[in-house]
Amino acid sequence: MLMFRYIAYHYLKYIAVILFALVFFMVGFDYMESADKLQSANLIVIYLTYKTFFAVDMLLPLSLVFAMIATKIFLIRSNALVAIYALGYNKTDVIKPFVGVAVAIMTLYIALHATSFARADEYANNIRRSAQYLQPTSNLFFTFKDRYVYFGKLYPLQERAEDIRIFTHENGALQQVLSAEGAYYADEHWHLNHAVSLQKPKTLSLEGDGITVTQLQDLTLLEGFRPKILDQVYEGKVNYTILDAIDALMLLGSENLNIDKIKSALYRIFITPLFVPSLIILIFFFVPISPRFLNITLFSFVAILATMMTWSFLFMLTELSNNKTIPSEVGIVLPVLALFTAALILWYRNRGHGVDAHS
Question: Is 258 domain-assigned?
Fold first, then answer.
């Protein structure tokens, strides 16, 4: 337990230092580019806060791997690693603090995606463009069941919309048009206030009735179509929170609509973080225990380069999956599971083994 705490303490220390440095660099560089577009101190503070959240979202996985490399080098330089092995610990004992801390942090990291943390970059970009962290979505047109729906403006946070048009069709023919100046979402439904209904007769003839115009005080429609789902799905965004993604997946799946982007977002949240403990294991077992058998400068360069290349490759595949260029199962799930499987095999082969002089 003492060994676990010792390694975990130094690992957490390096995580904090490296994450702060990377986030500070990313946010500072972004601020220098965007400073002229932010007109007030309040906007600057809010913008930098959201950009910091986004930078943590992007860089925390990298920081965990870099911190493991830094901690391992520290243990080698100080000969602490040799001393730990001399006390009877084996490689799997030494790697457990790294994996345990990394898994705990990545679990918290995943949980944060159930909050607006997942949309930090969107909020920051909105502030830079229009001095508002949440912009209304304009001219939203979508289908739901047997209806075509148009929202002139959608305000997801306020859960309301303006300039509503709903077109109902049967067998390819328009049957009804509903219009309203505004609507709000409550009790899992959209409520249209003071709506006007234009109803076409069943059969058109010179002797038949004409179009029926009806004033409706409170009309309830579009069950389950939450404002955030509308904003995310029909604007083609990929920065879902976990709950929004699950709701959208269930709703659109029941409508037989394309859910590839939603699956990609969920895979990115739950599957992609597995590459962190996988890389930690793979890099750890290839490092000798003593500086006599290790060119530390070369090792640092190769390990950091390998981590950056792996992260960049996974990021590229994720973007391709988000754009539906490749299936998300191929672009996200397959490469991460391949890394994870390789790490498990390496862990199993080294389980309980002693340490020889050259390893």
Answer: no
**Residues 286 and 299: beta-carbon distance below 8 Å:** no
User: Do 10 and 105 belong to one domain?
Assistant: yes
Alpha-carbon span 295 to 21, nearest angstrom = 25
Do residue 283 and residue 213 come from a single domain? no
Looking at 221, 237, 253, the residue that finishes a domain is 237
Q: Centre a 10 Å sphere on the Cβ of residue 277 and count the other Cβ atoms it contains.
A: 25
Residues 6+ apart with CB under 8 A from 126: 132, 133, 134, 135
Instruction: Give 118's DSSP letter.
Output: G
Give the residue numbers spanning the domain of 218.
136-237
Half-sphere exposure of 155 (CA within 13 A, CB side): 11
How is residue 252 written in tokens?
């659109």
Pairing relation of β-strands 173-186 and 189-199? antiparallel
Give the total number of structural domains in the chain.
2
For 224-269, what is each residue's pLDDT tens digit? 777 766 666 655 566 778 887 887 777 776 666 667 778 888 898 9
pTM of this structure? 0.81
